[in-house]
Automatic annotation (TrEMBL):
<protein>
    <submittedName>
        <fullName>Uncharacterized protein</fullName>
    </submittedName>
</protein>
Length: 164
């Protein structure tokens, strides 16, 4: 496996995970219409990225539909973290839960942004036009996901944390 394939695999996994997490946050915070609708829209972007990455990988003979040997079960790990963080009778306030969710989304989007940047740099160095076009098309949307989570955190943090 070469470097481009390695980064494509990482982006594919990261965008899948981000899309799933965005939809989970949209569902958990459905009463907050902005969060619900924007998170749903951003999840659609990540789903589109997943499909585009898979298509590019297929052209290279790499099937990303199969789980990678090194992948653990991120869904199980996420559920375990959430269940242990929310012991019975000690569920965090909705504002704190939203801040935690936004922080987690921000970190995952930022990680994906780094992978897109790595793909773009590698594609430039190896003159891989297909990989460069993919990164150029998808990375701006990932940066928008990062900006949205950051803006929401800046907006919600003072009112949520000062009321504790």
């Amino acid at each position: 496996m070469n470097g481009v394939e390695l980064v494509l695999r990482a982006i594919h996994h990261g965008e899948q995970e981000l899309a799933d997490d965005l939809l989970a946050v949209a569902g958990r915070h459905s009463a907050d219409h902005e969060v619900h609708h924007v998170a749903t829209d951003l999840a659609a972007w990540s789903r589109e990225h997943v499909e585009r990455v898979a298509g590019t990988a297929r052209h290279r003979g790499l099937d990303l539909a199969e789980p990678h040997q090194d992948d653990s079960s991120p869904g199980l790990l996420a559920a375990l973290k959430e269940n242990t963080a929310e012991a019975p009778g000690r569920r965090p306030e909705p504002g704190l839960l939203l801040l935690r969710d936004l922080r987690d989304l921000h970190l995952k989007a930022a990680e994906n942004s780094l992978y897109w940047e790595m793909l773009a740099q590698l594609a430039q160095a190896t003159r891989d036009d297909e990989a460069l076009e993919l990164a150029s098309a998808c990375h701006p949307r990932t940066l928008r996901q990062v900006r949205w989570t950051n803006t929401m955190i800046k907006t919600l943090c003072p009112q949520t944390l000062s009321s504790l």
